[in-house]
Amino acid sequence: MRQLAGKARKFGDNINTDYIIAGKYKFKSTDMNDMAKHLMEDVRPGFIDEIEKGDFIVAGHNFGMGSSREQAPLVIKAAGISAVIAKDFARIFYRNCINVGLPVIECDTDSIEEGNEIKVDLEKGVVHNITKGSKIKATPLPPVMMKILNDGGLAEHFKKHGEFKLE
Fold first, then answer.
1. Residues 58/11, Cβ–Cβ less than 8 Å
2. What tens-digit pLDDT sequence spans the chain (167 residues)?
3. CB-based contact 93:100 (threshold 8 Å)
């Protein structure tokens, strides 16, 4: 998988799926690009206007907690966010991200500040903070998850291979 690069967009702990995309939009549209306009609007109004394609959502503990709403990672991806970097993730959210082809990186995010230029090497498990000239060791993704991400998500993996193919 290619290296990812963009600016850090910083959030705190316990960002739930209702903060990512409010439940009031869940049945109003199935167009993720349309829903992406509302990304994080309850915790950071106008967030969609701040981000550029390739930016990262950077957070603390328990990112994606709450309901198993699959729209949450789909909306993040549709908004052009290249990956979510957090100290840890709610397990269902983490798996949903991999399933839809949105990279998730677990590492200590304390030294990353809003607007820092970041580069991520998923395969090596390294987050480079270009602004600060530092590196953060991340938890590497298991090879099976890298394969799914490289294929564009679980559905694309099945289309490509006709089955769940680990080799």
1. yes
2. 568 999 999 999 999 999 999 877 766 767 788 889 999 999 999 999 999 999 999 999 999 998 777 889 999 999 999 999 999 999 999 999 999 999 999 999 999 999 999 999 998 999 999 999 999 999 888 888 899 999 999 988 889 988 877 76
3. no
Residue with tokens 């030294």: 111
Fold of the 4-140 domain: Aconitase; domain 4 (3.20.19)
Domain boundary assignment for the chain? 4-140
Residue with structure tokens 């498990």? 125
Q: What is the pTM of this model?
A: 0.93
Which distant-in-sequence residues (6+ apart) come within 8 Å of 1 by Cβ? 103, 122, 123, 146, 149, 150
Residue 125 has which token pair?
A: 């498990």
- For 9, 12, 48, 64, 155, the CA distances from 99, given in Å and listed in that order, are 23, 24, 23, 14, 7
50 within 8 A of 39, measured Cβ to Cβ: no
DSSP letters for 50-100:
H--TT-EEE--SSBTBSS--THHHHHHHHTT--EEEES-B-HHHHHHHHHH
